[in-house]
Design goal:
The protein is of the alpha+beta class and 146 residues long. The chain is 49% helix and 25% strand. It has 7 helices and 4 strands. A 4-stranded antiparallel beta sheet has the order 2-1-4-3. Helix 3 packs across helix 5. The radius of gyration is 16 Å and the shape is globular. The termini are far apart. About 3% of the residues have low confidence.
Length: 146
């Protein structure tokens, strides 16, 4: 059994909590248990959700890229190009920025905010602080021009 904690911030513009992050995360997973907690931090309301889940895998799982549709493969390619440029500018190997599987996770969850990106496997606080704005901007730009 695996667990994940997802924290949702209140979105002032919509007047709602965006549960899409939880819904996307649960795709391909069986929910075993859930606990939720409401809290306010610096005057901003949040829901924190503790999920117990089990991965549901097909009998012969395909590599992530083969499960992607055309637009997801295009987004993955753009993320790889961004990663390559960024790595060259910084003089570091591309895998320091993000592995292929981490970029695939970004594509599959298509995060819209830094908080959502922080919930993608491999993207902790450090990576989100360093590269999060660029990734979110790239994703938003991709969907605006799609």
């Amino acid at each position: 059994m695996a667990v994940r904690i997802i924290t949702l911030a209140f979105d002032q513009s919509s007047g709602m909590f965006n549960e899409e992050l939880v819904n996307r995360f649960l795709l391909g997973r069986k929910l075993i248990g859930m606990k939720r907690e409401f809290f306010v931090l610096d005057g901003k309301p949040y829901w924190s959700v503790f999920l117990e889940y089990q991965e549901i895998l097909p009998s012969s799982p395909l590599p992530t890229q083969q499960r992607m549709n055309e637009w997801q493969r295009m987004l993955l390619q753009r993320l790889k190009e961004w990663r390559k440029r960024t790595a060259e500018e910084k003089g570091i190997p591309v895998y320091i920025i993000a592995s292929n599987s981490e970029l695939a996770g970004v594509v599959m969850s298509a995060p819209e905010t830094l908080e959502m990106l922080n919930n993608v496997r491999g993207f902790g606080k450090h990576k989100v602080e360093k590269y999060g704005q660029d990734i979110i901007a790239l994703i938003k730009g991709f969907f605006e021009n799609k």
